[in-house]
Amino acid sequence: MNYxxxxxxxxxxxxxxxxxxxxxxxxxxxxxGNPKSxxxxxxxxxxxxxxxxxxxxxxxxxxxxxxxxxxxxxxxWHAGDGSGSTSGNRTSIGVEICESGxxxxxLDNAVELVAQMLKERGWGVDRLRxxxxxxxxxxxxxxxxxxxxxxxxxxxxxVAAKLNEGKADEPEMKHEKAAVKVDGKPAKDGVxxxxxxxxxxxxxxxxxxxxxxxxxxxxxxxxxxKEAK
Length: 229
Known about the structure:
- By secondary structure, this protein is an alpha/beta fold.
- The chain is built from 6 helices and 13 strands.
- It has helices at about 40-45, 90, 105-120, 130-135, 150-165, 200-205, and strands at about 1-5, 25-30, 60, 65-70, 90-95, 130, 175-180, 180, 185, 190-195, 195-200, 210-215, 220-225.
- The chain has a 6-stranded mixed beta sheet with strand order 1-4-3-5-2-6. It has a 3-stranded antiparallel beta sheet with strand order 7-10-11, with no helix packed on it.
- The longest helix is centred in the middle third of the chain and has 19 residues, at about 105-120.
- It is elongated and about 75 Å long.
- The protein starts with a strand and ends in a 5-residue tail after the last strand.
């Protein structure tokens, strides 16, 4: 699938590209609601002079390509929940799945696109949202299935499967080491995982004069300090 950037100008009518900086925390999935339009057509609609709506989105995807219309570090108006700092409009990347042409192929492309976006960010499918989750609108409408949302759960499962492809063959992850000192004296090294330092619990406990016990059945480590003894 081809991915291309064709950003609308900041001067686009109806404030469709407001330019608010965004550090996205989720990805929101939509259907276009237009069975005749392609990703290129949806991009063109954003700058069509006859379009009087404020609504916009980040990426449109169809059976052939994905088109990025607004930079992913800026907000778009796609969630229908206002402009508050925690709104979907201000925190989520909007992906429009086109309804035209070979929809099965479009869904394949959407799964590939969204899985890649999650992988690049170190996210899982728990970061996916429906338009419905923000404002209650029945969207993505082709995943609604009379309120059962069968298509939505199937989409998430496919994205999850794509994320897990090849993981069994991946080598064991190696973590960066972190030097540790207790009262100025070196202790056993820790490791850095997702920005946090993890240390050997027994070594640290003994260095501060605490005792430690392990309950294997409960999987519980208990540290008792001198003051508590």
